[in-house]
Write a structure and sequence with these properties.
It is a single chain. By secondary structure, this protein is an all-alpha fold. It has one domain. It is built from eleven helices and no strands. Helix 4 packs antiparallel against helix 5 and helix 9 crosses helix 10. The relative contact order is 0.17.
Length: 353
């Protein structure tokens, strides 16, 4: 968490220092970089890389905690404002080429996998609750059917038993049946075989097994809100991945991030080995993130994103954590920088085009 806060603070302070001096958000640095330094030449881009580095650090810390406890913590929701802030800064700046646009796709992918993890884990709890409600409805239906059957029974007294047959009729019947006049043709057996050979299609009568619609169970506002939140997460995850795949794909990685691409393609890792890789290793193997519907894969997205930043940053002279601006070196007016996610100009994201 400390690493993420450090990157976020440095990126925000540095980004403000690149604005025109007349801008309301402009803040001068106490120790600005030399004019020949890449941190001066590419200050805006490096600041955005620091913001993205901070976002990945937060994501990786949250995912590591989830991995240890084998669960999905609710704190993922606190990342939404910072995600919006990062997307805004990368969208506001006209990306020069596909390499920079790929980082915007990375942010969308991080958000999509975050949403996917939340709804995948919540769905497990909801499934158990829905099973209990289904059993309750079926019990109500069974009780209703039993009550209807009880009401349909005749109310007359016990029926009079039939009279016993006379000896004469028994003798006549036995004599008549001693010589059969009809021979079985085997048709009933054939019909039975044909009936047994018929197979019903799976789910054909599924709807007929449901209780009638007039049987209901009570739900409260919390129940509706939770299901609405889950459906919203599914919709948002789909939207995020739709935007992500516009600017971040394997062909784009192969073209603009060949080293990162090679580390993913020539790998011996499987989808479940997220915990094996070292996020600071620049030579180790990686893995293309799997399907977000499983609720997993955030670790691989973070590892891929970190590798992309390192590969891209080498051309700029980006030094990562070694080049951040510590809080004690910020300008006096900027020492108590507010959370970037709550800034007035960063609350509304720029539409993606």
């Amino acid at each position: 968490m400390v690493l993420g806060r450090t990157f976020k603070f440095s990126g925000d302070v540095r980004l403000r220092s690149t604005y025109p001096q007349r801008a309301s958000e402009y803040t001068a640095l106490r120790n600005p970089p030399h004019s020949s330094s890449p941190y001066h030449k590419f200050g805006n881009l490096i600041a955005r890389l620091e913001l993205l580095d901070g976002l990945i650090s937060f994501f990786y810390a949250f995912w590591s905690r989830d991995f240890v406890h084998r669960t999905c913590h609710k704190q993922w929701g606190t990342m939404k404002q910072y995600i919006t802030y990062c997307k805004t800064k990368w969208q506001m700046e006209d990306a020069a080429d596909e390499r920079e646009k790929a980082f915007l796709g990375l942010i969308w992918m991080l958000e999509g996998f975050m949403e996917g993890r939340q709804y995948a884990y919540v769905a497990k709890a909801y499934h158990t609750e829905h099973e209990r409600m289904s059993v309750r409805l079926k019990n109500m239906w069974q009780a209703e059917q039993e009550e209807a059957a009880k009401k349909s029974r005749p109310t007359d007294s016990i029926a009079t038993p039939p009279m016993l047959p006379s000896p004469a009729s028994i003798a006549t019947t036995s004599s008549a049946n001693s010589t059969p006049t009809n021979h079985s043709t085997g048709a009933p057996a054939a019909t039975k075989t044909q009936n047994e050979s018929k197979t019903s299609r799976p789910g054909e009568d599924e709807k007929e097994k449901l209780p009638p619609p007039h049987l209901t169970v009570p739900v409260n506002a919390n129940f509706v809100y939770n299901r609405q939140s889950q459906s919203a997460a599914i919709v948002n995850a789909s939207r995020c991945m739709g935007y992500s795949q516009r600017t971040l794909t394997l062909p784009i990685l192969a073209k603009h991030f060949p080293r990162t691409f090679a580390r993913m393609i020539y790998t011996t890792y499987s989808v479940t080995d997220e915990h094996e890789a070292d996020i600071e290793d620049e030579e180790g193997e990686l893995f293309w993130p799997g399907q977000l519907a499983t609720g997993e894969g955030i670790g691989w997205v973070c590892l891929m994103g970190k590798a992309m930043i390192k590969e891209f940053g080498k051309d700029l002279g980006y030094r990562g954590y070694e080049g951040v601006i510590p809080k004690d070196e910020a300008a006096p007016a900027q020492e108590d920088v507010a959370d970037p996610s709550s800034g007035p100009s960063s609350s509304t994201p720029v539409p993606f085009s």
